[in-house]
């Protein structure tokens, strides 16, 4: 039976160890030989329900580390509670532009720049939380631990805690009562509006009925008026037909009268024409009539002076 070769066995074991080391390096993303930055965050307000070891630590949405441990501390004098959350930051995720190493920058410089931490909801379905980092220079930096061996990142209230504080300041009972009063007013207004609409609808129906009746009456009156006008027209036609012979006879008589008037005017014109025979005879007759009238006046004057002249006669002088 051949004995195993120790050199071959040693080479095989050494190769296995190298492969295992390469696997660990590959799985660790090359971070095995990189020194991580560790820090602690103290949360005072509220609980950290939903935050677990291994939860991500993000900076503006970029994962830069994870939660290593979560503790619970009480103050010996006041029994105030604080929850330290220990995190580790991966230097590979962060780069320094312009040269240099980010790990060489003092941690206090980031705190002075406004580096703050807060809890954020990672999933609304599961309720899990993560840690969010960001620069918030307008917020106070409240530091708890004075241990120089542990970097501390000041904590600020989460958005959910801020919302709870705002809601706690809202007078909910007064708001609910005002809302109830508003709903009552809206209900009353709606009821009044419905009643007014019903009244308006009834008035509209009455108006429509009256208008329909008036239109029907107007149509009937118009029909009667048209019939009366037609009858009057027929009566006028008959009267005009009856009066037509009389009018013609009257016109004929008028024409004869006009002819006689023309003849009379012609004779009158002949009598009055100067130099005409009829005019000469008329002048002689008028002169004789004037002489006769003068003699008659003289005889009347004589009788007036001497009435006996009727018996004795008139003597010529």
Mean pLDDT: 76
Principal-axis shape equals: rod-shaped
Order of helices and strands: HEEEEEHEEEHHHH
Q: How many whole angstroms does the radius of gyration measure?
A: 71 Å
Residue share in helix: 40-55%
Number of helices: 6
Largest sheet: 8 strands, mixed
Descriptive overview:
The chain has helices at 6-27, 107-113, 159-168, 172-272, 277-305, 309-312, and strands at residues 37-43, 56-59, 62-70, 73-74, 81-89, 115-121, 129-135, 151-152. The chain contains six helices and eight strands; from the N terminus they run H-E-E-E-E-E-H-E-E-E-H-H-H-H. 55% of the residues lie in helices and 15% in strands. Strands 1, 2, 3, 4, 5, 6, 7 and 8 form an eight-stranded mixed β-sheet that branches. The N and C termini lie far apart (234 Å).
Question: Care to give the gist of this entry?
Answer:
This protein has helices at residues 6-27, 107-113, 159-168, 172-272, 277-305, 309-312; strands at 37-43, 56-59, 62-70, 73-74, 81-89, 115-121, 129-135, 151-152. It has 317 residues and is α+β, with helices and mostly antiparallel strands. It is rod-shaped, with a radius of gyration of 71 Å.
Which descriptors apply to this entry?
single chain; 317 residues; rod-shaped; eight-stranded mixed beta sheet; 6 helices; 8 strands; alpha+beta
